[in-house]
Amino acid sequence: MPEFLKKRLLRWEAFLLVLLAAEIAVFGHLNPRFLRIPVLLGSINDFMSICVISLFVTLVLVTGGMDIQAGSIVGLASIVVGLLWKDFGVNVWAASLLALAIGAACGALSGFFVAYTGVQAMVVTLGGSFLYSGLALAATQLSDTESYKGISGFPRAFTAFSKYRLFGMIPSQTLIFLALIAVSYVILHKTRYGRCVFLCGVNQSAAEYSGINSRLVIMSAYIFSGASAALAGVVLTSYLGTAKADFGKELTLPIITAVVLGGTSNLGGRGGVIGTALAALVIGVMRFGLSMSGISTQYLDIPVGALLVLAVACRTFMDNPDISRRVRRLFARRKA
Known about the structure:
The protein has 336 residues and is mainly alpha-helical. It contains 16 helices and four strands. It has a two-stranded antiparallel sheet.
């Protein structure tokens, strides 16, 4: 790869930081209330699901896969917590653990079909999206509460942990996000498993010849993604105090955009957790800032979609050797 492209990739996280700072400055100018520290830090409560899930969807895309079912698992996990607690008398914390297990199982099911049958990941996870959202809706029929109302009335201890603020300013969701950044960074960048994930994305056959069980590695990436989506569903249920089957239905586009915008290749073999985390903040702050500026929520996906198209176009540009040669020649002429 040309040297200047390598430098651009190395500076991508710095570019995302600059973009994030620019967003804060612009939205702060449009609405001074946006710059208040409690408001700015508390904004992550509104897009915590995007932040958490995108970290582990990064693993999936690094393997060369795709995951568009995570949003459906959020709703399924939420309704499982509410249903088990209110209608079946299960302790709310035990219900939360069962929801996490179900999320991991959903990821395992889709991961199995992707890894062991060779079906395209897009097709499998699209089917999973419909399957898990359908199961969530079906589960609401087992409850005495009307589905449109949602299941509420959770114990105070369950709703309090998501509303806790460290030093009276830093929300617990921010602490969860920071902890998961550290965990996912270690998993992907500091362990042998992480190196296997990258190698599976670069060349699955080479990974097999190296003694790596590539199918198990690929399947495990989907398990991580499913579990993170379930965790997001549990935290969202705690924060809102309500369990609903349609939680997460609008998350697919922001999640994939955060991963790709963060520098992870949609073709696999390249990516990073830090870039994804910064991109998730860029998207979340943008959506929050636009809503505070008076933009209707129904239009918030427009800039996110534009970011996704631009990110994929830039990645294609940087990976195209013909375009790289032309750009190098252009730079060489300017230097001359």
